[in-house]
Design goal:
Layout: E1 4-11, H1 24-34, E2 40-48, E3 51-58, H2 65-85, E4 109-115, E5 121-129, H3 137-145, H4 152-155, H5 157-160, E6 163-169, E7 174-179, H6 184-191, E8 197-204, E9 216-218, H7 223-227, E10 237-241, H8 249-253, E11 261-264, E12 270-273, E13 275-276, E14 292-300, E15 309-310, H9 318-332, H10 344-347, H11 352-357
The structure holds fructose -6-phosphate and magnesium ion (2 copies).
Residues 12, 15, 19, 50, 89, 92, 232 line the site of one magnesium ion (MG).
Length: 367
């Protein structure tokens, strides 16, 4: 069976209003621009908060110039519409003027996965707003390595061998491959520091799937490193394959039954609880948040994505939404104090240094 590539490419090209949501006309522009394009097998356009999300299947592999050019062109047209409508921060993530073959390093976030589809191929696309790539560390670890989350790791011989993790040090631009269950504690030693070490890809161990192709991928762009100044958090996306020797769909979703803390939220400067929601509720209102995550499920067939299932639009996730809202209130009561506000070293990449600069020269030494 021939390989297909699932690409998730996203950008904030203008908010409506403020940084809360994407205007419906932008979604329309994006759909029109992807419609009928021969290079795509299929596509789905959606949004999480103020991020315009392009989900596409095609046969051109990862880093395809044609597919990236189409995504770039789509964001450009959406930016024009955003300017016309006077949307907020029009073109925010379009950090470069000229497309040079790949959208990496130009502002948009990218997660791409080329694989040989199995007979039944469920793929889940996760999209987050008001947080950073490391926000996926905890849920991805739980899906593929935590026996208290994923029953299959314990009771299904085809998962029992564990998985292989590709972890990136995003400050040093280095990576390391590590395996579970053997190196579980070492993996956690790294990925617990989610602002620095991020899970980039997960692979099966022991030839479970054809060519040991990857089973999960997370976008790891860091906007501040690209732009050289604060332009918002990275609002990551992730793609996860499931079932038949991989975590079941319910095991892939289960980590989100907990409103874990992530960094981002207001001004990319606060810790707050993630809130899993259906697409209709993917609107970052309270204190520009709390950070949201949506998940769309697809049953890929002959390269086509087919219908999207809005997986968190489910009353089973009501309790975690309530937990998230309650934690949001609790955290908010700290106002400008840590640990609601991020620690100083992480505030380096926000607008705070501008304030600190004004105080320079007023400090006196003390004995
Ligand atoms: C967070 C985010 C928003 C803005 C905030 C201030 O990622 O995008 O919380 O940081 O609304 O935005 P400006 O500086 O554009 O007024
Ligand atoms: Mg924005
Ligand atoms: Mg955003």
């Amino acid at each position: 069976m021939s390989k297909i590539t699932f690409s998730a490419i996203k950008a904030d090209v203008g908010g409506f209003p403020g940084h809360t949501n994407v205007h419906p006309e932008l979604l329309e522009v994006a759909r029109k621009n992807l419609e009928g394009k021969d290079i795509l097998e299929d596509f789905h356009v959606t949004h999480c908060g103020d991020d315009l999300e392009l989900l596409m299947t095609h046969r051109h592999g990862e880093d395809s110039e044609e597919v990236h050019a189409l995504a770039w062109d789509t964001f450009k047209k959406a930016t024009e519409k955003a300017k016309e409508l006077g949307l907020y921060g029009a073109g925010q993530d379009m950090l470069s003027d000229a497309f040079s073959g790949n959208v990496k390093g130009m502002g948009p976030g990218i997660a791409e996965m080329e694989f040989t589809p199995r007979k039944g191929e469920p793929v889940v696309a996760f999209m987050m707003d008001k947080t950073e790539p490391g926000a996926f560390n905890l849920p991805i670890f739980k899906m593929f390595a935590d026996p208290f989350n994923t029953a299959g790791l314990v009771i299904d011989p085809s998962l029992h061998g564990g998985f292989r993790f590709e972890i990136w040090d995003i400050k040093k631009s280095e990576r390391i491959f590590m395996e579970t269950p053997e190196e579980m504690y070492d993996i956690l030693a790294l990925i617990g520091a989610k602002g620095r070490f991020v899970i980039k890809r997960v692979y099966p161990k022991g030839k479970k799937l054809p060519n040991d192709e990857l089973v999960a991928v997370i976008s790891t762009e860091k906007l501040y490193q690209i732009a050289g100044e604060y332009v918002g958090k990275d609002d990551p996306v992730a793609l996860v394959r499931s079932q038949s020797g991989l975590p079941a769909l319910g095991e892939v979703l289960e980590p989100f039954a907990h409103a874990f803390l992530v960094s981002g939220w207001m001004r990319g400067s606060h810790n707050g609880p993630i809130m899993p929601v259906g697409v209709k509720d993917a609107i970052c209102t309270r204190f520009d948040g709390p950070p949201r995550v949506i998940s769309l499920g697809f049953q890929v067939k002959d390269g086509k994505m087919g219908e999207a299932a809005d997986l968190f639009d489910d009353p089973a996730f009501d309790p975690v939404r309530e937990e998230s809202a309650n934690i949001a209130s609790y955290m908010r009561r700290h106002g400008p104090f840590e640990p609601h506000r991020l620690p100083l070293e992480e505030m380096e990449y926000t607008t705070l240094p501008g304030v600190m600069k004004n105080l320079e020269g007023r400090f006196e030494s003390v004995e």
